[in-house]
Amino acid sequence: MSHTSEPTNYFTIERPSVAEFKDRGSKFLAHAYPIESVADFKRILQLLKKEHPKAVHHCFAYRLGTADNIFRASDDGEPSGTAGRPILGQIDSKQLTNVLIVVVRYFGGTLLGVPGLINAYKMAASMALQLTPVIQRPVTVKYDISFDYTQLNEVMLVMKSGQCEILEREMQLFCRISTAVPRANLTEVITALGELQGVEFAVAP
Predict the structure, then answer these.
(1) Residues pairing with 120 in the sheet
(2) 10-residue block means of pLDDT along the chain (205 residues)?
(3) 135 vs 67, 101, 120, CA distance in Å?
(4) N or C: which end of the chain has fewer CB within 10 A?
C-alpha cells in the first residue's frame, strides 16, 4: 500500500476564536475550534449548549483528517442547507481540516429568510476564522514503542531527529512511549528504530 499520494501536511487553526454577526436583531455567535477527534466535537458542543441554554439554534460543521474525508454539517432546526453547509463552506474555502465551527443563534424576532440565514451563518463563520491564525501541521501516524530503560537515549534521539511528538510515556525499567510520527519522516524513523536491538514498535490501534 503506497502512501505517496497522501499529504504530509495539513492546515488548521492555531487557537479557538469567537466572532459575532448581527442581522435584524438576531445574534450569530460563531465559535471556531481546532479539534483532533469527533469526541472533541461532542464535548465542545455540550459545553456551548450549557453556556447558551436560551439560544434557539446551535448549528455546526466540522472537518477532520486528511485522507478519510470525515465531516459533518448540521442545520439544527434551521431550514435545510441554510446553516451547516455555509459554515462547512467557509472551512473548505480556506482548505482547513481538524476544525469545528459552532454558530449559536439568538433569535431577534424578525425572520431573515433563506438567503439571509445563509449569509448570516457564512459571515459569522468567516469572521471567526479571520480571528485565528492558520497554521501548517504535519500529518502524523501514531506508534507505540516499548524498550528497555537502557535504550532510552537512543530511542529519544530517533524521536528528536524524526521530529516526533511524544503523546504519553511510561518510564520504568521497561519503557513505553506513545508517539506521533510525522508521515514525511516515517520511513527514516521506522528504519532507525528497527536497527535498535530489542526495541518493539507498532502502529497504535
Answers:
(1) none
(2) 68 98 97 96 98 96 89 97 98 97 96 97 98 96 95 96 96 94 96 95 94
(3) 19, 17, 26
(4) N
Whether 95 and 11 have beta carbons less than 8 Å apart is answered as yes
Cα–Cα dist 63/99, whole Å: 6
Q: Which helix (H) or strand (E) holds 71?
A: strand 70-74
| Selection from 43, 34, 21, 81 nearest residue 62 by Cα | 34
Classify 9-136 by CATH class: alpha beta
Sequence spans of domains, the chain = 9-136, 139-203
- How far is 104 from 28, CA to CA, in rounded Å? 6
Rounded Cα distance, 74 and 119, in Å: 16
CA–CA separation, 88 and 32 (whole Å) = 11
Q: What would you measure as the largest C-alpha separation in the chain, in angstroms?
A: 71
Read off the pLDDT of residues 156-175 as tens digits, 9 standing for 90 and up. Answer: 999 999 999 999 999 988 99
CA distances from 116 to 15, 76, 203 (A): 29, 16, 48
